[in-house]
């Protein structure tokens, strides 16, 4: 008789956990823990075994649920109820590092009824966010400690106060507007700061590291070239590129209000090669550059607007000009570990709710010179030579 699936999964988990343990021990690293002082990342060389454990444990978990619980995952939408309260009242910031405080003190500081505070936080604790080391006392776990950083707390606020309502109703309906997310959020200083902090958190995730772009595309081979970083925000990618490749002259284009602040942040030693320019990417491109680089731009727009953004480049395209797009490349189903695919598909739905856009596969209507998918990177690098979109 063939081995049952649950035994197969148990064997995968056993073998892969041993592999992880051996790598961690060889590097003098502790076993993963929820402790507030546990390290927040893992060495790259455990990633294959980690994928295997995460997929096998989640399959085993799901196999042992009955269908209604599997479908609804314990009223999963309520996860966002407690996360929203944690972020809105900055509860993680109330708990001293290494210390603990009573539920009542949290309720008082947050202006919440104590019973509600207990219920919200005990639900969060089932997700390993906060713990109750002694009855009635709240302390940090690794996850809640992360949220004690105000920038991280803003990231969670954006997730629960901007993205979650938009996921239910769409951004326009949840804000009762026909304006874009940029103008609505930009018109409220509090929301704008929160949103910009959340974007910084996304940008600092290891799988969005600028090194993937630097290490996986041969910028040095381009010779002395003019690059335009379209929608380049604070110039964080442009400065990293310019620091590494002396052959690059980079103009960062973004909206006027972004550029006005960002242009003061260029390091002294790069000022000769990195500059800023206010430019609306729907208007004709004024610079006849050698390379037009768009990172994390097109996924914010539906096809209709992406075509306009690309079309605005046409008058500036000289022979040999390159368009380099760095975006998520959606995998075909089952081609990557399921836990990663689930995250990507959730992000894709998020883009639909917020921007009426999507995470794309590499569209064959482009003439694509290459698609590079660096190991460990969330973003693929797509080099387009010519575009035949209508
Ligand atoms: C998701 S961010 C990507 C930022 C950066 N490229 C990166 O990879 O971190 C999108 C950027 O597009 C800019 N943007 C939005 N609409 C724009 C427009 N019409 N013209 C120029 N930039 C725009 C935003 O200000 C923002 O900096």
What would you say this structure looks like, in words?
- The relative contact order is 0.08.
- By secondary structure, the protein is an alpha/beta fold.
- Helix 4 packs across helix 6 (114-126) and helix 8 crosses helix 16 (338-355).
- 45% of the residues lie in helices and 13% in strands.
- Bound molecules: S-adenosylmethionine (SAM).
- The site of S-adenosylmethionine has 16 residues, from loops.
Provide a concise account of the structure shown.
It contains 16 helices and nine strands. The protein is an alpha/beta fold and 390 residues long.
How many strands, which pairing sense, and closed or not: the largest β-sheet?
A: 7 strands, mixed
Strand content: 5-15%
Mean of residue pLDDT values: 92
Q: Write out the CATH superfamily name of the largest domain.
A: Vaccinia Virus protein VP39
Across the major sheet, the strand order is 5-4-3-6-7-9-8
Number of helices: 16
Bound molecules: S-adenosylmethionine
CATH topology of the largest domain, anyone? Answer: Rossmann fold
């Amino acid at each position: 008789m063939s081995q049952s699936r649950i035994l197969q999964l148990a064997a995968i988990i056993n073998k892969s956990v041993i592999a992880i343990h051996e790598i961690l021990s060889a590097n003098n690293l502790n076993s993963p823990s929820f402790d507030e002082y546990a390290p927040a990342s893992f060495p790259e060389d455990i990633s294959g075994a980690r994928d295997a454990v995460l997929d096998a444990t989640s399959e085993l978990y799901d196999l042992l649920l009955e269908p209604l619980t599997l479908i609804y995952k314990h009223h999963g939408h309520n996860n966002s109820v407690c996360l929203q309260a944690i972020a809105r009242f900055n509860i993680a910031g109330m708990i001293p590092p290494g210390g603990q405080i009573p539920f009542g003190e949290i309720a008082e500081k947050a202006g919440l009824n104590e019973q509600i505070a207990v219920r919200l936080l005990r639900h969060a604790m089932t997700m390993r966010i906060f713990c109750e080391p002694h009855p009635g006392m709240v302390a940090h776990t690794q996850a809640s400690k992360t949220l004690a950083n105000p920038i991280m707390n803003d990231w969670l606020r954006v997730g629960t106060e901007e993205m979650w309502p938009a996921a239910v109703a769409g951004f326009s309906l949840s804000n009762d507007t026909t304006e874009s997310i940029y103008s609505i959020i930009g018109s409220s200083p509090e929301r704008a700061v929160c949103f910009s902090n959340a974007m910084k958190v996304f940008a600092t995730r290891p799988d969005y590291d600028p090194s993937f772009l630097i290490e996986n595309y041969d910028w040095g081979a381009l010779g002395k070239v003019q690059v335009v970083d379209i929608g380049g925000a604070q110039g964080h990618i442009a400065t990293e590129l310019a620091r590494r490749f002396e052959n690059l002259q980079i103009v960062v284009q973004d909206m006027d209000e972004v550029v006005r602040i960002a242009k003061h942040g260029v390091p002294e030693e790069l000022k000769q090669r990195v500059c800023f320019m206010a430019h609306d990417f729907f208007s004709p491109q004024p610079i006849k550059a050698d390379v037009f680089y768009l990172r994390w731009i097109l996924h914010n727009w539906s096809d209709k607007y992406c075509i306009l953004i690309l079309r605005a480049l046409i008058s500036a395209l000289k022979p040999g000009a390159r368009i380099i797009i760095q975006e998520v490349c959606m995998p075909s189903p089952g081609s990557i570990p399921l836990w990663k695919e689930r995250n990507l598909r959730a992000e894709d739905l998020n883009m639909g709710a917020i921007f009426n856009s999507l995470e794309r596969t590499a569209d064959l209507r482009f003439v694509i010179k290459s698609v590079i998918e660096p190991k460990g990177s969330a973003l693929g690098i797509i080099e387009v030579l010519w575009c035949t979109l209508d």
